[in-house]
Task: structure prediction
Amino acid sequence: MEVHHHPEVEKKGFKEYILEGLMIFLAVTMGFFAETIREGISDRAKGHEYIRSFVEDMRRDTATFSSLIAFDNNKLIALNNLSTCYDSVEKDSKSAGCLVPIIKNSMSNRGGNFTDGTMQQLKNAGGFRLLNKSDKDSIVSYDHAARAYLNFEFTVFQQRQDIVRDAFVKLVDFKAQSMLAPDSAVTNVQAPLLFSKDKALINEYFNDLLLYRRVIKTQTGTLGKLSKKATGLIKYFDCKYDLE
Result:
């Protein structure tokens, strides 16, 4: 009977096992580092894209700010005549023509409609984690200022606007209302302007207008600061990330 001899297998030494294990460990580690670097590059690219999109939103907002500030400044020009107009109406309620520009500039408002698409993505899609701390803090600070402005507009300002409108309804003659719309070209109202000669009601209306003017000044000042903040951020990000 023929006997087959199995070839002898050379046993690996302890050092060889250590070396193979080390090489496997290094391969896994290098792969991990490569993936981490790749994800880091991808995250930075996404973060820069968020910054670019946010800057574009602010560019649109600054145009909106300029329009709102101009609108409110025109209102203030008319409302700065309150004292003189009050003296005229107090002497003779029929001499109320000075109220025409005041009424036209106190019956409506343009709300702040800001562009917040990128901001919502940063908040809801976890985009803030892709930004460095200084960029995140700058954007969050701007968002707080914008929301504070809108909160003032929706509460304090809107309250004063409603009060002025209510006083207007009580005081102004129905036949004159159609000629007092903000877009009306009529400057000399022929019909009796005031329905009531009640001096207490007239005094209340002018007091409401005075408070309304103060609120507009506050609102315009706040919006001016917000606009300046947006302009500063645009320049900051343009310079830092070469967005222009």
User: Anything to note?
Assistant: The chain has a mean pLDDT of 84. The chain has one domain: 14-241. The radius of gyration is 34 Å. Residues 14-241 form one domain.
